[in-house]
Structures are given as structure tokens and as C-alpha cells.
Amino acid sequence: MSTRSPRPSTARRGSRSGLALLATIGLLVAACGAPPTSGGSGGGREAGGGTEKELPKCPLEALEKATAPVKVNLWFGGLVDPPVTVLTDMVKAFNASQKKVVVTADNQGSSYAEVLRKYEGASPTPKQLPQMIYLEDTSLGEMVDKGQILPAQSCMEADDYDPTRLTPAARASYSVDGVLYPAYMNVSTPVLYYNKVHFQKAGLDPNDPPKNLAEIEDVARKLKEAGVSDKPMAFLANEWFLNTWVAGISQDVVDNNNGRTKVPTKSTFDTPEVAAALKQLQDLDKEGLLNSFPVTDGSIDHYISLVNEDSSMLIETSTASGTIAQVLGGDLTAEDAGVDFSGAIDSTKLVPGSGPMPGLESPGKVFASGGAFYILNTSSPEQQAASWMFYKFMLQPENAKKWHIDGGYLPAVKEVVDDPDVLEFQETDLAGLLLKPAVDQVAAADPDQAGPLIGPYKGFQDALRGALEGVLFDGKDPKSALGSAKSEVDTLLEDYNGN
How much is the pTM? Predict the structure, then answer.
């Protein structure tokens, strides 16, 4: 997901020590390198949209009346260590903290898609469903449309938990028609990872990564001309990155304010600006500056290109920061790789750095992606209330902090952002240092530009990803590829909306 011979010992040693961890990264990317948010469409939203719905009741009193511990089950998938350990430890801690509720968490597979498929198979028979489910953000639209979610906002308001305690970007991405649906969000965004040693060897400032696509081209050319890396920019043909770029120039990928004010009826990504971006990627690829990889489940080839030093830069999910710190950083400390880095360490080492997501124009223009925890309304009233009780435990700042420091996700609870332990982690731990640009850019994200809400996201994803791959791997004309993708998405939305 190059063929230059590695320098003696350096790349070979990095490959052997890192491949086992890279296998973990492959699972992590499949799980956490999520495309941007999708949301209610079709039957789950009013055609007019844009108005707050009356919230269903959250039956908190049902749990108070229960005479025995209430058992609830959480389906999850797409989590590997360390996040899966954070979740299982949190379940154990919650169960030990009280006697009203017993939570079990069942891993349904290594990808979000496996959990969604199992949910889709069981949803016609509600008795087969769990009481809680963790899914990729792109599943929000389908979940809302099926009508099987108890909006967490109902329980928050019933239990005097102020939803504005959550970070604005997270709330915006996971709200539909003014209603927040999940109770907790594992937030991630794309960022740029790069090898500081390569920058230093090419005469580039190792603390000044490229900020937009034009600077990526300039930096990649200098890296290649210096003989530092064969194909300097590793690039996974993931539509998540393209969607982020489009949002960064204040454009939408579907109509009706990206599906946020009304259900989307047609695509809007076929613009001169998007075609120009695809053409620039294609030109970079032809010049040998781009190391392009197709998106496949569990693919780690784009990471291996950095370990083998065939490439020097990579755009990927912020959640990979911890594993990248292990794979590329080894025994390096945050001080070794921080702003004081000058190349004055063992030159055979790979020294990872990170920066904001490079934009088409400016850096750091992102919106919250990742995974979300839902309460299903197909269970009994006491189980719905019990599910909220567990999520309320997860929302406690001390537990939300664990998702960031130990799990690698971005803070979803405001109190966590300036917590002393969090600030220390971001300053003194290499994984925290790599995660900091993502923390900053999601904190600055515009809640009014939260990304697209598309019910049939999978079909949209296939069409736009197909356009990217056609341009990069088949030499298709960018405008023609976008036009074909637009036709596919327009037909998809028309069929989905029953027109």
C-alpha cells in the first residue's frame, strides 16, 4: 500500500525490527484511517433537513427500578493494541466500579466493515443485536436511516450532561439535524509523517514539513535530486485525503451544504480545483516523486516504503502515531526528535516527524473522523439506560484521557485538552509529539464545515476512490475520471433517495 537498494545495515535493520509492528499498523490503518464522516440520508432524515428533531426519551428510571444487575453487550471491531486494551480495561474498571450494570465487549473483527456487516445481517432481527455498537464514522448515515439508534443526546439531557463538554469538531461531525447520536467518539484526522534525517541530508529544514501540495512537490523533488529517497512521497489512494483537501478549500463533495442542511441529491466534487489536484498528483507520479499505493485491507506497503527509506513522507491517520513512533523511532526520545533535532545523532537512524495535513492551499484544514459508540434502541429500557451509564463512565475526563494517551485518539472531551498529563505526554513522549499536530488542527477545525453526510457512503467511497486509482494507476484523464465518478454518485444518491 522502489526499488532503490538500502544503505548497508540501516534500512535492513529497520525492516527486520519494524515489520511485526508494521503488521499492527496495517490493521490500525484499516480500522482508524477512516474516510470522513457520513450521515443521515434517505429515510432517516426529513427531506427538508436542517431542523432539530424532537428527542426520544432516554429511560433512565428503568435502570433505577431494576432489581438485578443489567447485562449489556458492546460489539466492536477495527481496534488493535493499544486501543483494544484501553477498551477492555475500561470495561473491567467500569464493572468493578458499581453493581448495577455488567458490560461485556465482543470483538467482531479486525475492521469496522466486519462489524457493520454483522450489524446489517442482524438488524432485521433486533433480538440478535447487541445493546451497544462501535462503528466507523462513515456508518452514521446508515445507522440513522435504519432508526435503531437512541441518540446519546437524549440521555445526556436527561442526565444533566452538557453535550458542549465535547469538543466542537467531534460534536459537529457526529450530529444530524442538530442531534448528537453517539455517546463517545474516537477522533482521528490525517497528518503528514516524514523522516527528519532525510530532510537534513537533502539540506531541508527538518522541522519545517511541507504545508500544501505545491510544497510537497518542491520538497519531494529536492529529496529525489539529493539521492535521499527514490520516490519521496508515499501516497495511499484514499478518498479520505481527497475529501479533506476539498473541504480545506471550502468546497463540498455533495450538494445541500455537504448533505448537512438537506439530504444530498447529487455530487459536487467535479470542479476545476479538484481536477487540478488530481492532475498534480498524476504529474508527481509520472516524475517519480510519488510512491502510489492502492487501498487494500490491511495493506502496509506505504509504511514499509518509509522503513526501507524508499520514501521520506507519508499522509496517514493520526492514530498511527504510537506505532510509527515504535517502528521508525525505536529508542528515540521526544527530545531526540523534537524541534531541537539537527541531525546531530546517529545518522543511520530513522527519525520520525509529523506535521499538519498538507492542504491544496493551506495546512491543517480537517474535520473529525474516526469511530463512534452508539446505544441501540432495540434493547429493553433498562439496557438502554445501562448503556448510557457505561458511556457516561467513558466520558469522565480520566477515562477520556486514557483514549488519548494510551489509545492514540484525539481528545473528544474538552477537559482533557489542557490536562497536565496530556500536555506532558505531548511534550515528552515521542508518540505524543507526533500526535500534537493532529490535536492542534482538530481543535482549530471549523464546526460549520464538518464534512459530508452521505447515507450510502460505501458506494460514494468506491466511486471517488476509483477515480483516484484510475488517475494514478491507469493514466486516466483527471477530468474524465471525475466525470465518471460524478455520474456514479449521482445515480447512487437518486436510487438511495427513492427518486
Answer: 0.88
